[in-house]
Amino acid sequence: MGRWIDIFDSTLRDGSQGEGMSFSLEDKLRIVQLLDELGVSYIEAGNPASNVKDRTFFQSLDRLSLRSARIVAFGSTRRPGTAAGEDSSLLALAGVPVETVAIFGKSWDYQAREILRISPEENLELISSSVSFLRQSGKTVFFDAEHFFDGYRENPSYAMACLEAAHSAGAHTLVLCETRGGCLPDEVASVTAAVVEAFPGVPVAIHAHNDSGCAVASSLLAVRAGACQVQGTLLGIGERCGNADLSTIIADLTLKMGVSCIHGRLDSLSGICNAVAAVSNMSISASAPYIGASAFAHKGGMHIDGVLKDPRSFEHERPQDVGAVRRLLMSEVSGRALLMKRVERIRPGLDKDSPEVVRLMEILKSREAEGYQYEGAENSFDVIIYRELFRTEPFFTFVHYQTIGSLPYADGGDGNSHTALVKARVRGESAVAGAEGRGPVNALDKALRCVLEQFYPSLRSVHLTDYKVRVLDGSDATASRVRVLITSSDGADSWSTIGVSSDIIKASFLALSDSIEYKLFKDRYTKEVKRWA
Q: Which of 4, 172, 184, 428 has the lowest tally of Cβ within 10 angstroms?
């Protein structure tokens, strides 16, 4: 990997302009640490002239100890009619405690005339004087040529003149901004190549938006055309349809194009992306390349059979190279290959045509017809496998459960608004327990474990870590069937289970019951479970 491409992350600036995105000061500081751990070269952290939060961030930089990333402050060229040395935005950039600043300026004559309401010649002076002022203030300047590709299409000589004005004034890097996100990759590549040829030895960057779904492709082709820096946001968030997704670009540059682009380890990519998503209070799309939950998930029977024989048959890269995990999804279309894989871990030696395996396949198809879906909740089916293969006396039998709800305590209290009562039979004995909770599921969860903990003390370590509900068919409105997925943990392992019913409480009860039974099976067959967990 002889070539190096700088990664310029704008999650905290351009990303914050995405709908619903907002970062606190602590969020920004944490994301900077994560991006530095990944090893990006530049982190554009905000505009010190725009708001108090960004100004406070730059004043808080002494709290950070960064290994490789350089913090960049963002602003604009001076306002028309204001001298550079008197412009509040430029003064803020000149005074910020970072070496590198990025300023944007118009590079489309239409934008100069119709948006700024100035002549194209005056716009060139805005660019030149702004860059010159910041250079005289000791800053390294990146010039963001806003709307460059649209401007180049309509008036290429003027777009180039804007770059020349910035370069002559001392700009270090010329950033070609595909601001509207409407250019196709081949146009981005040809224009980038023309700029690289016109400015030999000058660093050229690409900044693409995703309005036509081409931001990643455009960025990669710009690199092929000679760009030495790619700008974007780690998870693709940003204005309108978002920015170029750096999580995909980083992996593609490294694995597909043989180009080095981060100072950290590529196998930290998935974990860091998930951490940034958590701080940003957002979910990563399951279908996101490389880092999504489905990126290396296989469901079709032929696909699973092929992957079990050789992962290269259906995987374009190794999941571990980006810190991801291969997932084989249990379903009626996954075939017996995956079912046998799970069965063999518990009870080796069974043939795929054995009565037990045939019966399990019939159960799987029947349950999926009822609305069960074991993708992401395979442990519920593990419970069925245990029951069918070992035919042991059940750990417990539930006789009755009841939940009672009321308004939360008016005086603030402890917020417990529901009570649950559960009766069960265990080893020939009857047991009853009740519990309060902040909702019916919380109360039911507590009561279930309470009634069984006296017989199975290990359940005291079990707690819910996630709870999801999905309506299967909304045609019946509030009487529709729902699928409840829960994730539980005992501090050492975690597992997911499922329940389906037109009664959300019953669906939750079924998922909770499976969770408890899985834990007990896991404890009883520890060695077997460790072999496939």
A: 428
Select the more confidently predicted residue: 381 or 26: 26
Within 107-235, strands assigned E span 140-146, 173-178, 204-208, 229-232
- Rounded mean pLDDT, 270-290: 91
pLDDT number for residue 410: 43
Other CB atoms closer than 10 Å to residue 414's CB: what's the count?
Answer: 9
How far apart are the two ends of the chain, measured CA to CA in Å? 37
Q: What is the mean pLDDT of residues 51-56?
A: 90
- Is pLDDT above 70 for 409? no
Which residues are registered as beta bridge partners of 142? 102, 173
pLDDT value of residue 333: 56
Q: Average the pLDDT over 279-305 and give the result.
A: 87
């017996």: which residue's tokens? 336
State the Cα–Cα distance between residues 514 and 509, nearest whole angstrom.
9
Q: What is the DSSP letter of 39?
A: T
Of 8, 63, 31, 70, whose CA–CA distance to 275 is shortest? Answer: 31
Three-state secondary-structure class, residue 310: coil
> What topology is assigned to 396-453 in CATH?
Double Stranded RNA Binding Domain (3.30.160)
Half-sphere exposure at residue 331, Cβ-oriented, CA atoms within 13 angstroms: 17
Query: Of 1, 331, 325, 249, which is closest to residue 315 (Cα–Cα)?
Result: 325
Nearest CA among 210, 199, 222, 229 for reference residue 100: 229
What is the spatial order of strands in the sheet that 494-501 belongs to? 463-471, 482-489, 494-501
Q: In this predicted structure, which of 208-217, 244-253, 348-357 has the lowest mean pLDDT?
A: 348-357
The full set of domain ranges for the chain reads 6-264, 297-388, 396-453
Q: Residue 8 forms beta bridges with which residues?
A: 42, 231
Domain boundaries 6-264, corresponding CATH code: 3.20.20.70
Among the listed residues 162, 181, 90, the one whose alpha carbon sits nearest the alpha carbon of residue 133:
90
